[in-house]
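P.,

For your records, the input lines for the assembly:
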Amino acid sequence: MAFDKMELRDIEVWDGNFAAAQALRQCQIDVVAAYPITPSTPIVEGYAKFLADNYVEGEFVMVESEHAAMSGCIGAAAAGGRVATATSSQGFALMCETLYQASGMRLPIVLNVVNRALAAPLNVNGDHSDMYLGRDSGWIQFDAYCPQDAYDLNFIAFKVAEDHEVRLPAMVHQDGFMTSHTAQGVHTLTDDQGYGFVGDFKPMNDMLDFEHPVTHGVQTEEDWHFEHKARQHNDLMTKVIPKIEQAFADFEKLSGRKYNLVEKYDVDDADVVVVCMGTSVETAREVAGEMRAKGIKAGVLGIRVIRPFPFMQIAEALKGVKAIATLDRSSPNGAAGMLFNEIAGCLFNTDTKALLSGYVYGLGGRDLTKAHLVDLYNELQANVDAGKVTTPLQQFIGVRGPKLSFL
Amino acid sequence: MANTGWDEFEIGAMLRSFDGKIDDIAGTLQEDRAYSQNNSFVASVADWRIEKPVFNKDFCIDCQFCWIYCPDISIISRDKKMIGVDMDHCKGCGICVEVCPTNPKSLLMFPEHADEEAELAKWPEKDEEKK
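Structure tokens returned:
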């Protein structure tokens, strides 16, 4: 190999951004086309530094916008390279048009999304608005709760996305600042272990195969478009989840760290469960433990894979639960909330008749405190005791002014 | 093709230009290339055309101007000899007529329905320069 290897300690103190940048280095990304935006910038900056210091063999393409960043990634991926980039918020919004191109063209790009609120008003802090914006784009979406997850899930994302049975792009999400700028101990892989896990990139229908010329990005109308979209949806619904489970199993063998489509914490015997994503999962876990000491059988269900949505796994995980709270960190703007709707869909045709209530919280980086979660678990227990939802179906947590609730 | 189901084609918004492996494509004449069904070479766009070029070989000097300027690679030339126009891909833009340097021109535009033999029979005479 024409580049240098890096000696890492078993545990390094990294924030989520640097953990992701290290994973991109160890995966030996061929092309990163990127445009900076808070709070994701250090990921691509980190890759650029590793490249400049000869720790990677690749290309960094500086572009004029996030639309151009993803367009550059699409071109490089169609040419036959291992490709990644990172963005947040407004940059993610500008990328949206090209996100659908990447997935429709079946290009296994990995996009690190450091979740941040969407303007207006302008806000650089973490919520899940950009993550929710991507959920119909045909990408696989992994959610990290801490820097360790952000590191590990990058390897898993490449492994799944590049599988020739899958060939779909993948996002690795982490919470802006809460994960991206919070340094924690991260268990590392050696360069050989990390690269060995993802393996050499295996091109498919690549434009650099001059003996088999291809045209990428073709146009179809009512005669073919539906079949292409049906195929993409079919592959997301049937092929991706087994591949993710296999990658999780392989990664556990390598690292000892086990990931699941849905992360269950004290759910199996729980009466009351909070369903949430991102850093909130860790806060909720701590509070659930304290609620158990007070006699409330509390649990937490963290969504690890948002798309494809683990419909059956969630229905199974929640089958014995009596009351469920869904926590959406994105303004539903006129609806009940993504997690509320998805969880209701999972459970509606099952025998689980849990009491379901939705909460909107943490917009623009507003803290979700342990006190909020204590109140929330107490409300769920009150619902269980009353045998019905005693509150409005949608409540806002931590917003100033008169109590805000709907439905 | 019309009956191909969603699970019966290659993934991605991607089409192959040729059937199988190619080699020395630049040195292979179009008619000898294994174009795939999806290549535009096998599709006709003639129905877009409302005017067509007619080629009169009697005046052609094989200068190749039309071959160079045609934006749709629709001038057929072999061994630097002008043979005719690929009427499946010509869109009737008239550039070949515009650049033709002979007097009279060796290519002229006529309505799509015009009879080629009849037009060749009444081709214009040489245009004498007036002093």
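Two observations worth noting. The mean pLDDT of chain B is 93. Chain B touches chain A at residues 2, 4-7, 9-18, 21-23, 25, 38 (CB under 8 Å).

Regards
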